[in-house]
Amino acid sequence: MSASSPSDRPDTVYKILLQSDWKSWITQPRTSLPNSPYTAQLFTGAGIDIKDGYIHLSTAEQSSGTYVKWFSKNNPAEPDNNGQEQASETGGQSLVLVEISLAKVVGRVEWELAPSRGDYFAHVYDGGIPYILPSEEGSEFSAVLRVWEGADVKKTLFDKLAAEGR
């Protein structure tokens, strides 16, 4: 599903992170959530997000291209043509894929054209993505729906999510 028109824009998007960015997110001090009595770990961006001034997100269909363009060469879980793990160009750090409900994001979501990709991508401005463990009170305010880590995060996962239309 392309996100080129408003009717094609899903409620669920994805964020690909380095393991260190995920660890920073889930171990940071909790922040009060607007319109809620609860607190959460609020992800306000990784390096490229902070540099650009917004959090980059992708639809299921877009995630595969984002992964290939920015992450696959650096992913030690991605097999090469011989079925062996590739050496990472950045030290072999594992990846994390986070599925996110846009309805629960704090701040404003703008769908903006990425000319190099010819599609509109979700960007979060002036806020972040709240995470509350599913077992905790207030977890209904968490924007994080599912998380995949390490060896599970490779092209076949992105292709599966796109095929499911998630």
UniProtKB/TrEMBL annotation:
InterPro entries: DUF952. Residues 70-90 are annotated as: Disordered. SUPFAM superfamilies: ADP-ribosylation (SSF56399). Residues 81-90 have a biased composition (Polar residues). It comes from the Eukaryota. This is Uncharacterized protein. It comes from Gomphillus americanus. The lineage of its organism: Eukaryota, Fungi, Dikarya, Ascomycota, Pezizomycotina.
